[in-house]
Structures
1.
Amino acid sequence: MSVEFLLRILGMLGFGIGGGFWGYRVAQIGPSDSAEATVTIITFALVGALAGLILTPYFTTRPARAIRSLLGRLAAESLFAGLAGLIVGLLVAALLAFPLSLLPQPFSQILPFIGVVIFSYIGISLFVMRQGDIMGLVSALSGRGEGGGSSSWSNLNRNILLDTSVIIDGRVADIAKTGFLPGTLLIPRFVLNELQYIADSPDGQRRQRGRRGMEVLAELQKLPNILVRISDINVDGVREVDDKLIVLGKQLKSPVLTNDYNLNRIAELQGVTVLNINELANAVKSVVLPGEVLRINILQEGKEHSQGVGYMEDGTMVVVENGKEYIGEYAEVGITKVLQTAAGRMIFGRIDEEQAKRNKGK
């Protein structure tokens, strides 16, 4: 039996009894016999019961759901700051209540109540507006920020939203170990649900990717210098996970950590900060300039005629002209061109055939 159904029954009984009393009062107003009075009472009781059955959820469960949904969209830091501001505002209002009560009437009765409303509003607004500084101050006073703990000033002052793709990718755990992600890694419940859905997929490859994401998430939670928080915060009226992340990024003013190219572009168009792991990987790759000579293991054939493809130690692809006949061998490749794109970096080179022949002759 649901809570709403039980409240409907109670509301029906309460309104029915109230309608019956009202009908009894109405029946006593004018001259009427007992049969007419009974019909009036029953009619009012039935109308009251019907009204109670229909209207009870509108002032019980539905307002409670609306408040719960509103609180669910707020970050824990905002809730804590708002509660602290309310307490401080009530304390200030209580201190001023006594001197205000000594004023002549009606000021002694009105001003204390007005003071409670005004100072509560000021306290909540001020603490929520400066919640980052307050959380940092609490961390500093508690001493938990010393020694690089996970609750340091920066960790409490910044949330980083994680996308499903970046959890499955796995490199986020390695980056977090280095300390280059200062902040709380915030994983909304809907991202976790999508990860679980992938892990339960009938497709073996998708299922393996989902389980890898679960393992990466468990590894992140074990790291001592990273605070990982799974939140029930949600966005009403939005179904797609990427759209929800963008809306949350706007509401919380938090960056989104991803390696999804489409999510990256859409978020940037809407003014949301994006931390793209692929861009980070491209930024830290070794710099190669045209004219340098690299020793490359040519592994496969390229798309064009006589091309070969090899890879550097950091995984960067090198397209080698006239490298088809050297597949499976190491060769000295002179770099001719370097192209940097949003998808990554491509390096083009060419084998010095005379040098290669001399090396073979040796």
2.
Amino acid sequence: MSFVSLAFFAFFAIVLLSQLVLPTARARHAALLVASYVFYGWWDWRFCFLMLFLTLVAFFAGLAMEKRPGRRGILAVGVAVPLAVLFTFKYLNFFLDTFRAAFGLSGGALAIILPVGISFYTFQSLSYTIDVYRGKLPATHDFLRFALYIAFFPQLVAGPIVKAVDFLPQLEEDRRPTARGVFRGMTEFAFGMLKKAVLADNIALFADSVFDAVGAYSSGAVALAVVGYALQIYFDFSGYSDMATGAARCLGYDLTVNFNLPYLSRNVSEFWKRWHISLSSWLQQYLYIPLGGNRRGTARTCLNLMITMVLGGLWHGADWSFVVWGALHGAALCAHRLWAARFSARSGRLRRAAATLLTDIFVCLLWVPFRAKSLGHAVLVWRRLFAFAPGLSTVPVWTLAGLVAALGFVLLRAVRCRATGEAMDGSAPRLVCGTFLGTLGLTLMLGFALVLMYTGESPFIYFQF
């Protein structure tokens, strides 16, 4: 069930109404849990059993560690089982194909369906198990609350990844929708829908056509498509994050900010502090730091960065193109760390602008293997990009309008944040509930989104992860 659909609007209206009329927190939690499983089962009802299984594993692992603290064997089981499930559904065919190719063996792919959002709720269950072992939070004895934490539908299939230490305490409070929360949530949702359905989807029409037939387009058109895809994936994913945050806020819950205008970053390290923040912080907290972080010398730090980014790339998809994407970002992080240790950063508008431009060029070029169908396809796009070759160069008007609007959004947002001093989190503007300007702003966002939205089939990019 896509956020940008009439089915979801009807579904959410029913859920919101249930949260308004049900008298107790327990009843509201139960209604939210049922709604979350209905939402997830909309794709395939069989997925619900897999999510329930992982929920049960993490829940009972937490209880077992509470009774027998310090037992690494329980932690090992609580971590190994979800990872084994994730490996089976997402990576088994990839490794089998790689093994066959390496040894010249024949064989077809196994008939395994990839459950929507499995990477997201698997990481949530792992964070709970690890945090209970570390003593960062007590094991919960309330299965209803824990199951709702894993299955909470606004962020279930594409994040942001929510840690138990941040969300379970909210479920212990008697939260219900408020007029102010619903208004702010609707504002965030409308702004996210504007990003996704108007900007990302209209840019995608051109970017997809170029990537699908790159040999027919001129190098200039390919360059524009590469930039277009960089903007498409940002507005697509940050738009989903805004809609998820807005839907949760309407229901009375707070989710973490997932983007902080990443294309204004001045280096790759800063980019990863602004892009998909919930995943970056998860990888740092549960992988990079346990590996040793930056505490064991420069060589070990670079090795830890490479391992973290390669696995982060593999998290996105079972293909060598994602591995290369993660490895190149890891190499860039290592290079920046070595550079920063040797040379002090210099200020100045021109230097900052040049650093931002170079970072954006690097990030855009590395989105190519992320978008390409395979590593060979990515190489083909790169070769065409730097070949200065002639070819088709026609760009749809809606794509140009989307690119201009996207760049305008980033610039206006940056100028406003600089003037007001508010955080540049890339989310919806703070409209005031009950005022004329606030109501007008919300109406205009909804109107633009509904009138200018792309009405074709365009699923969220991160649904495949």
3.
Amino acid sequence: MIVFFNDKFLELEEVKISPFDRGFQYADGVYEVIRTYFGKLFRFQDHLERLKNSLDALKINYPKMDILESTIYEIIKKNNFIGDNFSVYIQITRGVSYPRKHSFPKDNTNPTTFISVTPIEKISKQKGIKIIFENDFRWQRCDIKSISLLASVLANQHAVEEGAGEAIWIRDGYLLEGSHTNFWAVKNGEVWTAPLSNLILPGVSRKVIIEVCNNSGIKVHEEPIKQNEINLYDEFFVSGTTSEIIPVTQINDDIIGDGKPGEITKNIHAEFNKYVQSKTWM
């Protein structure tokens, strides 16, 4: 597999990362995940803006934003992948710094860049998944797409061990987001999701879903969802870049409704697919 590493297209086995890279030692870096439809990067400018915001928050100087798009398409071309739906992973760290110390190096202008592209396998989860709740023990800047993901790894592993597809973070009695998704609830034909703040990631799919709902006449409330009021809602779903929209049919041990995806969730997913198929975003 061909990847991009520090200005070079290399076979994956040729990539060598220094043990003094600050991403390796401190998780001092950010990442972004983008997908394609029809071989084209979906909502690339939204992803690029989020990547810029994450880099700015960490004060990482990255002067090569203007070549990322062409670089990604070149990776796809060089790999001769079959199909046209791919997941793109971009990781940028502050770079190599020796001797090891917590403060930024004086030369803070040589970040480490790694980009890979993987074909997306179409796995249908439209029958719905189980989710569990997890007390939020993450840091206070969840809006940064940081490579420091241990908390999310542990939460998602707990979900797997419980036979669930996702873990939803709870802080101070409010439902926030999943370990790698945004979380949604439906009541009386209207949709709720946590408001943007430092405690959730500004998902690109989240943004698209809000647009799709607005265009379809489905009211969206960007308001906190209380854990102790969860029984007042009719449907739930989660969303993400590669997973799109996944219905939730069970929370912990409780089956939601009749155990099948809700009608509003199915309608939103259908409208999402229409938007993708329309190619108006290209």
4.
Amino acid sequence: MLKKELRSSLLKKRQSMSETEWREKSDRLCHHLQNYSLFQKAQTVLAYFSFRQEVDLSLLFTNNRENSTVSNKIWGLPRCVKKDLFWHIWQPESSLQKGKYGILEPESNAPLLHSSEVDLILIPAVACDLNGYRLGYGGGFYDRMLSSEEWASKPTIGIVFEFAYLQQLPIDPWDRPLTAVCTENGVISVIS
């Protein structure tokens, strides 16, 4: 199956989930992340705001004060500018704005994060496979970022629901495998 057809099929399946199922699976996934050593050790974590029923990571942000695993985290969230992602420091009380694609983003004047400050990247995906490859939305934002020298060595965790964790995805020469994949059933290390 081609990437375009696979993407369309998986997005339909994801959007057919009930609100309750989506919330329960998102929260379970967040609990698995909080218990994963790579996440626990990371000080500065790049994340995202859920869009079109992606896994919702807001439990990580709202537990920030109550949970020692996440209370010391510095969060970075993206802003889309032309064909690139710019990462800004974000705190739950910080204001947001709708960006170019209708996704919530930090304000443009929020402090920027540079790659040298980042310990871990949580990457939204339409699907991931057993080899750590990711199927995105087709815009190439993360592919471009992860292929640049400054970001290439950063640990990455693909975030997907279990139904989108597949045996094998079609890959292109520019695709890079992730360090791990996290679903509501657990975290699977791909690259040690």
